[in-house]
């Protein structure tokens, strides 16, 4: 069965993470994705190592783990768009594509005649997705956008980290580039929406996505906590602003996440912890009361949690229907029986390493399941195939383009 998007071609002019995350999603769903890279160096993240993928002999292949994380399922063409011939090729690829994704600075592609207006003129059905730090307009539009900066500007770091005054307190970024990833996911949704609109109207359109917009949007309930009260939320470490107890606790040999979602669960937890009277105390009987009296309640629970090991607590809490969980390192994550059952690790053949381990897409479709046919590409490995099969170039023309450094050599 062909993939859900196997009828589509995506021209990927993006690099680093937000754009490539979007186009990897589209590739996983079956689309043909042509990734345009600079000859000689390619996507910036190819150099973002170590670590690098190793071959069977344990030697570095030069393929960075970062690049591998977001470029599965794509074909790579090494092409210099600063050269007039390179721009001509991009226009011909755009003429034959359904979607173009780019993350150049605002106006960066206009000087090459590869902006939305120019390409829409030659392909009115084209969906053109621009991803920038701050959007196509506004006072910050010309600024470059970086995930770390956007996590700070967009409010995420104001609610992440230990509380001010606590040991280790202060602003903290998230351990992965979530502003980039949020934006890549929103871009995927936007592209699919634009494709659906095009099915009804035949009309392409320009998508304008900004990291800052996506970061602000993803603060969800924390946004509404502020907008409904006028009071900015504070950092609370691992505690939840609206639910108590909903945080990590130290156990006899580590930590456990306790996620009490309602009053009945709190009562069952108290019975297990040997402090059943707390569930009858008016200060703690309801979630609203527990939130108001958080500072008094948590010190009463901490000694009880330290009486058992993490494993013992999880077994007891799960049996009682109280949500809980461990804090796994990645080795434990990929050894977890549920993660293994769901097939979240996959291994694909790789031309330089023999095999490359990757993380599966979490989307599960019953009628058009995802298939993983292509590992992250070597730089420019598909240049000849794309130019010959899609654009009809002959060998002598390819040789001329290589001599003129318009395209790179295939590995």
Spans of at least 5 consecutive residues whose pLDDT stays below 50 are none
CATH topology of the largest domain: Rossmann fold
Strand content: 15-25%
Relevant CATH superfamily of the largest domain: Crotonobetainyl-coa:carnitine coa-transferase, domain 1
Major sheet size, sense and barrel closure: 6 strands, parallel
Number of helices: 16
The CATH architecture of the largest domain would be: 3-Layer(aba) Sandwich
3D architecture notes:
The protein is of the alpha/beta class and 411 residues long. A hairpin with a 4-residue loop joins strand 9 (246-250) and strand 10. The protein has helices spanning 18-28, 65-68, 84-95, 116-122, 147-153, 178-201, 211-217, 220-229, 263-273, 287-292, 294-305, 310-319, 330-335, 337-341, 383-390, 395-403, and strands at residues 9-13, 32-37, 52-54, 60-64, 74-78, 99-102, 127-132, 206-210, 246-250, 255-259, 324-325, 345-350, 354-359. Helix 1 (18-28) packs across helix 6 (178-201) and helix 6 (178-201) crosses helix 7 (211-217). The protein folds into 2 domains: 9-218 and 342-403, Rossmann fold, CATH 3.40.50.10540; 246-332, formyl-coa transferase, domain 3 (2-Layer Sandwich), CATH 3.30.1540. The chain is built from 16 helices and 13 strands. The model has no long low-confidence stretch (mean pLDDT 96). It has a 6-stranded parallel β-sheet with strand order 5-2-1-6-7-8, with helices on both faces. A 3-stranded antiparallel β-sheet has the order 9-10-11, covered by helices on one side.
